[in-house]
Aldehyde dehydrogenase (NADP(+))
Amino acid sequence: MTDKNILTEVSTPSKTFRGFNPTKGEWLTTEFTESSPEAVAAAAEKAEAAFLIYRKKTGAERADFLQKIGEEIMNLGDALITLCQEESGLPEARLQGERGRTIGQLNMFAALLREGSWVDATVDTAIPDRKPLPKSDLRRMNIALGPVGIFGASNFPLAFSVAGGDTASALAAGCTVVVKGHPAHPGTSQLMAAAVLRAAQATNMPDGVFSMVHGQSTAVGMDLVEHPLIKAIGFTGSYRGGKALFDAAARRPEPIPVYAEMGSTNPVFILPGALKERGENLAQGLATSVTMGVGQFCTNPGLVVAQQSTEAEKFLNKTTEVFTGLSAGTMLTPTIKQAFDAGIQKLTQTAGVSVLATGISNESACGGTPHLLRTDATTFLATPEIGEEVFGPSTVYISATGKEELMAIANGLHGHLTATLQATPEDLVEYADLVAILERKVGRLLINGFPTGVEVCASMVHGGPFPATTDARTTSVGTAAIYRFSRPVCYQDFPDSVLPAELQNSNPLNIWRNVNGQLTKDKI
Amino acid sequence: MTDKNILTEVSTPSKTFRGFNPTKGEWLTTEFTESSPEAVAAAAEKAEAAFLIYRKKTGAERADFLQKIGEEIMNLGDALITLCQEESGLPEARLQGERGRTIGQLNMFAALLREGSWVDATVDTAIPDRKPLPKSDLRRMNIALGPVGIFGASNFPLAFSVAGGDTASALAAGCTVVVKGHPAHPGTSQLMAAAVLRAAQATNMPDGVFSMVHGQSTAVGMDLVEHPLIKAIGFTGSYRGGKALFDAAARRPEPIPVYAEMGSTNPVFILPGALKERGENLAQGLATSVTMGVGQFCTNPGLVVAQQSTEAEKFLNKTTEVFTGLSAGTMLTPTIKQAFDAGIQKLTQTAGVSVLATGISNESACGGTPHLLRTDATTFLATPEIGEEVFGPSTVYISATGKEELMAIANGLHGHLTATLQATPEDLVEYADLVAILERKVGRLLINGFPTGVEVCASMVHGGPFPATTDARTTSVGTAAIYRFSRPVCYQDFPDSVLPAELQNSNPLNIWRNVNGQLTKDKI
């Protein structure tokens, strides 16, 4: 397998681009070719041809493929971590952890496939002598949607990029995948794509089961979204990017689902009892969560809401002190750094918003300096822009005069990925309505934690109402993400031998099924 | 409860409309007022206020409400059937059956709620001593989307209208509902709405849990889709109508899901062995399915494909004979009758399409005369319009020269609700690829049946890829329809007392849950 297999070849390479080392502030030397419309089309066509074969592979076969991808990623060794560090500025330990998470995700989906019950097999057996009409035999299960397009994210160059969560869930569902690599880490993308292709070859998967296209311009992504053979899109990134893809997909002659995770400001409500009990600890915890990964997480807490009180002022003083001592970190790209600086500038120029603390800045090309800002509830409620995500290590503290204003803030929120309550048991009784309000606003509600750190497990919801995502009915993290790439099909009066194994009488895969209303592993 | 509670009142009733008796060809006398934009907004606002209360009702309470709706529908007695007959032209027996189905659907969702496991409760318990990071307690379940808009269908004035499947599934999920009644049966809609409201009152449901708006113009529906408090749309009807709603919903500042079931032509493939074995019976079965309900079913088989052979000609002769003897039936509305006649005219004027048989027509205002048309595969493949739905009692027989052409037809299909194979066991072996092709095209695949007659059960999929629906990931018939109106929420580190009952340690509802990867009813 040579490198030329990774990228569908282009006839006339017209445009090239390079990675950037944000730590050194230097362009890297390797040139990458932007994929032409023909190259994108060729990848989609190969994905369609491969889909005919891949979708009929057993769950165990797909599981082998996913696990093998993980092995091939490990086989990339230190070269992957080194190159990814160069391209992303992320520290070695973080990238090692992220590699572990990436492989963990692949293995988690492999386990899901081996267990097999995810297809939601549901059987209603025939009643030939039912009056007035006989009842047919009906059996339903989930099948794969088709070839899908996955966009790599800048902030998780391993775990939400080429072989990341979206790719893993789509491949698990039985979809073939065309990845649009993120231009911020083209070399990393190329290495990861090579690993996926080696795994595909080793596990006898069809040519085209996975391919990658490259590009800096939005045209490459649009070509992918608009290709008629592509049946769904997975994306993690900005609101602007995600919404543009969503709109393009809705405009297609055949509209397709777009799962765009577009981030949010993840409000944290610090209730009076919690402030009293552990205000100082919360200051430290908040600062850690806001600046983790230089604030470049979708679940970064960008809004903190509390009611005026002596304890609130103490908490704020402590938080100010902590923020003042924090150092700037290296952000992923110059564009992200510029957007962060611009966002902070816009906030600080907003009437009624003040800067409480600025961390220790540095002169590097991509330095992101921690910021703690403050406003009051009246200003916030009158100026919705304050609630817009500023991607980076900053947060806005909103002071409410009392419970009423705090509840008004909660009620006025649009969709977010998460919301957090810092609360004592007494707070939770007094603010029970707050939980009910926030349930409608987010995909994940936390009590006494911080929203960064998204556990990869069956019960995770990394999603939420618009504009956090374009599809609140799903999650992009955890095993439930597989449902984004599947749909139900019902088989009526099929002879047993023609049914998929999941629906055959003998239950050869020994999966959980709903048979005539009863959940069971029994045969029929 | 008086009639004025049924329709949100309008300040300046500007436009009225009346029902039409398609059998007699006469306008009915009762005048109905078209809902103003203010009336639609008021209904949405009431639905939002009610949602805050309704979504916290227990499953058992919602089940009581749904069952009570069924009882109140029965309490409408013969008056409902009589009025519905007048407005729809459908026969008494059919409407009695449809009433039974409507109540059956409500009871089915009530049973689903009482059982309770539909919320897909998934729990991953904490691992405080996990290295390098402790694991939080995470618990996920489905909650209701919010107030939703449901559009009544013309062809199921009871089972897919005011208190029909979409309303039942939305109310079951915990959504409040604003129905846009279909203008073809305004009186029936009004009676049914009154029944729902009586049930709401009897079971102590909040004011606004259900309301209805009326109108002939598309503006009323658009007002509903565009209202910011409405969070999803259910629709059954034409491609034009459904696609317009889908587009409007995607254009909203906050896009929302639209579940539009837009019908299809439901291809039937009659394979050589089946033709040989039972060609004559198939002729009778096909004619019955095509003309059932005067062909006014979304699953009406509008395309029949077979390969040239002596047996095929015999089958066709027999089908021609049967169709020639069929009588015209009364279609639902003059508009539907005109669209049917126009569709037939367009088909007969298409080069390469011929009329094999015309049933016995009548002179009534809404008479729909059965038509059997014929074309060949070459013409069909070159003229995709032949495959467009003609809503009514007609079907197009497509003669293929051999297996290759038959497979080309299958490959070229867009999305349909159903596809059917008439096949012997030997056919199924020889045409195994055909099943694989059709799986990608439809929501339901049948062997040796006919697609009309949609069983209401857990395993049903009444849906399919675009343009059959705007969301292939769902079904509008059967218990799985509840998932259209819900989304997952994850609770992290919640004290047991603050969790919804479904997720509490003791499993007080005794539902099936996935706990740390194991499906169980055990407590935690």
Q: What stands out?
A: Chain B has a mean pLDDT of 95. The radius of gyration of chain B is 25 Å. Residues 39-262+472-484 of chain B form a domain with the Aldehyde Dehydrogenase; Chain A, domain 1 fold (CATH 3.40.605.10). Chain B has three domains: 39-262+472-484, 268-447, 493-520.
